[in-house]
Specification:
Blueprint (H helix, E strand, L loop, with lengths): L2 H10 L16 H14 L6 E8 L2 E8 L6 H20 L10 E3 L9 E3 L1 H21 L16 H20 L6 E8 L2 E8 L5 H18 L6 E2 L1 H8 L3 E9 L1 H16 L5 E7 L4 E6 L4 H17 L19
Parallel strand pairs: 8-9
Antiparallel strand pairs: 1-2, 3-4, 5-6, 7-8, 9-10
């Protein structure tokens, strides 16, 4: 759902608003708006109701958790009717434009969420489903119980990351004849991509290490939350002695991916490179490193690290202030 629609719901129903509305399609905005207005009319229950929306294979479901001592039989019946009306509305309104008169489009995999589209938007949605079916047919051997039913709310850029890295994993499994020894668990949970390898005894360790790295990279790239997090332990696991004992690395997930690319280049230069710190203080930053090499190579390394500072966005004058991840600064 677009940001302006989300903000409208947040403003109209501050006591009932839940971030789960952000995962819903724009076409269901009026259905959600009507449901929340009905919930508000049931009674003054703002202090005892938690609302969460979830797209199910058959339509939109609203889950409401009231405190029992304030919840009467009459209000409970009104809630059930409102929930039923929301579900029926989601099945009868185009999820793109919100117009009535829709057809149901089955998902690309077994158990996947059905789509609901008007005549105008049905054909393009059907093409996308067929394309995804073809992708899953090529990747099916990676999944023990068949391809997963991905949430339709998964953004297109994250979906692309998932399929790109599944393709890399499939190619590696085929190259080493590891089909049946390596499976992938794939999900989209609370806005985050989950891609985890499952290894069967007899798999090649070197292949497992590469596939674990593929999965971790996919999750990091898909994590678009603008949080500054501590990546020190993760970096030390990947790069070992390239990370100084007292080093601190605090970046967003995308910044950390850029740093990884630079560290791989620095490692290949064989200049005794050691990263001492890479912190986005937001505002401000700190990048410190050391090396043991000739002046010529040191100059080349300085150029690499200067380019890193630019790629991380540290030189931008209008950078937004980003929140800290839980735990705060060290």
């Amino acid at each position: 759902m677009k940001a302006d629609k989300i903000e409208t719901l947040r403003t109209r129903y501050p006591w009932y608003f839940d971030p789960s509305v952000s995962t819903l399609p724009d076409g269901w905005f009026h259905a959600v708006d009507h449901f929340l207005s009905q919930l508000k009319d049931i009674g003054d229950l703002a202090d005892c109701v938690i609302v969460r929306f979830e797209r199910m294979p058959y339509g939109l479901q609203a889950f409401v958790a009231p405190c029992q001592f304030n919840w009467t039989g009459e209000s409970a019946l009104a809630l059930v009717r409102a929930q039923e009306a929301l579900l029926l509305a989601s099945q009868s309104l185009c999820e793109v434009c919100g117009l009535p008169g829709v057809e149901t489009l089955p998902g690309a995999t077994e158990g996947a969420q059905a789509g609901f589209f008007c005549e105008e938007h049905l054909s393009s949605a059907a093409v996308q489903v067929e394309q995804e079916k073809a992708r899953w047919a090529d990747l099916a051997f990676l999944f023990r119980d068949g391809p997963p039913a991905l949430d339709r709310s998964m953004p297109e850029d994250i979906r692309k990351i998932a399929f790109d890295y599944l393709g890399k994993i499939a190619a590696k499994v085929r190259e080493w004849d590891q089909a049946g020894y390596i499976h992938i668990k794939l999900a989209f949970d609370e806005g985050l991509l989950v891609m985890r390898p499952i290894y069967i005894p007899g798999y090649e360790l070197i292949v497992g290490m590469e596939i674990t790295e593929f999965c971790s990279t996919a999750e990091e790239l898909a994590d678009t939350r603008p949080y500054i997090q501590d990546w020190t332990d993760r970096a030390r696991t990947i790069f070992g002695t390239l990370i100084d004992e007292g080093c601190v690395i605090r970046l967003t997930s995308r910044q950390f991916y850029i740093l990884q690319q630079t560290l791989k280049i620095a490692a290949s230069m064989e200049v005794g490179f050691v990263l001492k710190d890479c912190v986005d203080w937001n505002p401000g930053y700190e990048v410190d490193y050391d090396c043991d090499t000739t002046p010529h190579l040191e100059k080349e390394l300085d150029g690499l690290m200067s380019a890193l500072v630019v790629r991380l966005g540290f030189t931008e004058t209008d950078r937004p202030i980003l929140p800290e991840a839980p735990g705060g600064r060290p």
